[in-house]
Amino acid sequence: MKKIFSVIAGLLVIAFSIAACATSRAGYETAPYTVIRTDGDFELREYPELKIATTARDADNSSFMRLFRYIDGGNVEKEKIAMTTPVFMVNGKMAFVVPEKHKAATPAPSSPQVIVDTLKAQRVAVLRFSGSRTKDSEPQAIAKLQAWMKQNKFTEAGAPFSAYYDPPWTPSFLRRNEVLVPVKTAF
Questions:
Q1: How far is 55 from 66, CA to CA, in rounded Å?
Q2: Are strands 29-30 and 84-85 parallel, antiparallel or unpaired?
Q3: Where does 50-119 sit in CATH, by number?
Q4: pTM of this prediction?
Q5: Are 141 and 126 in contact (CB under 8 A)?
Q6: Strand partners, 183
Q7: pLDDT over 60 at 15, yes or no
Q8: What percentage of the chain has pLDDT greater than the value 90?
């Protein structure tokens, strides 16, 4: 009986893993960056300038849907634009990274609530964490990252922001979330 239970449990784990991979960030273009240093879940990275589509961040799901409509053909060219990762939450806005293919000629949004902008090139300290997004998870992660930065004598050069890589149906323990803090480039 124990053997049958073990086999069934093993098959369920395999099926769950395959399903999770099929619904995750796999296959999406990811914003490029260079890792300068790694220390467990902490990293120091350099991002190039990124072209982004932004909208005001709302408490409900409307900000995501505005950006999704933009990439789904809600632009002046009526062109579909591939989804990318991560979705950034920066300066009170939600931002999708424009894929490399559309970087030089990004279609203008049809909605006045969506703006095509740039995220300047920068060096950032990063903490990766999993789990669901809650009102406490991001502030706790930022505090942990700032403590690591202080310990390593990194000086903040801007406001913290966050990055989310997975769709909402991804099990929370498999989600890739990050908090990022710009740091001064001279050490």
A1: 7
A2: parallel
A3: 3.20.80.10
A4: 0.84
A5: no
A6: 156
A7: no
A8: 77
